[in-house]
Amino acid sequence: MSKEHRPLLMRANRMLGANLVEHNLVKIEDLEIANEKLIDLVATDQPRQSTILGILAYDMKVLKEDEVLHRIVETEGVGLVDLRDYEVPEDSRKNLDTGACWATWSVPFDHEEEFTFIATAYYLSPAVRSHWEKLLGGQILWFGTTLECIADYLEKHAATLAAAALAAAPAVAAAPAGIGATPPPAK
What we know:
Helices cover 56% and strands 11% of the residues. With 187 residues, it is of the alpha/beta class.
């Protein structure tokens, strides 16, 4: 995680944790333990592990991720999406800020007219919603999804970028001398 995105990650997790307690989904004592674990994980620079929701649900097992999704569907009217079954358009993938996606556990995945569609596991974090609303402007349609879905999408996206870069590298190296080179300055 870049230093640029670390404050966003911490704010997103802190506000999500506070809302999980406020919605009676976890106890404050469990959140305090999870926060300590999160700080240790953030220091190891493992974005897939740096999630208060993941720590509470999968490490400590004091919360079920499905309960969080059910809550946002019932109380917030948010729909659900599984990005593994969604063909994300190229223009949505092209300029994806993966650091911000990992920090907020959210992915902008489509755009229709003035609306941007965002899948998130962190809808209950006002810091997440605020970040994307400021960044994208316009109107956002939010969709809940799982941590696994977000992580799988971001890792697949990174692998696709790496493969494209690797495929382009031999083409540049194989170009004859002078092709693609910068011309000498004019005198």
